[in-house]
């Protein structure tokens, strides 16, 4: 695994109508229709990040907030934080 990583803070909002990632007041927000049971929201978030960044889910780790709305995600990639945020919130 690549040793270079970036930690990103994401606020999750489960049980919403659509799945989306966006920036609000300098905070990344992740809305998902998933219910917060049995790690479904966490799995959906990691899958969404993987797809947006074009990297494998094995390069994304939830390091804090397993059962909280505020998550810290560690991303192993050769991107800087600004690039990661732009890719995550792009349509």
Describe the structure using short key phrases:
91 residues, Conserved Hypothetical Protein Mth637, Chain: A, 5-stranded mixed beta sheet, 2 helices
| Pattern of helices and strands | EEEHEEH
The domain count comes to 1
What name goes with the CATH superfamily?
Answer: YggU-like
Helix/strand-derived category reads: alpha+beta
CATH class: Alpha Beta
Shape: globular
DSSP summary: helix tally? 2
Describe the protein.
The chain has 91 residues and is α+β, with helices and mostly antiparallel strands. Helix content is 25%, strand content 34%. The protein is built from two helices and five strands; from the N terminus they run βββαββα. It has a five-stranded mixed β-sheet, covered by helices on one side. A hairpin with a 5-residue loop joins β4 and β5.
Explain the layout of strands and helices:
Blueprint lengths: L4 E9 L6 E5 L2 E5 L8 H14 L6 E5 L5 E7 L4 H9 L2
Parallel strand pairs: 1-3
Antiparallel strand pairs: 1-5, 2-3, 4-5
Short description:
The protein has helices at 40-53, 81-89, and strands at residues 5-13, 20-24, 27-31, 60-64, 70-76. It has 91 residues and is of the alpha+beta class. The chain has one domain (5-89): 2-Layer Sandwich (Conserved Hypothetical Protein Mth637, Chain: A).
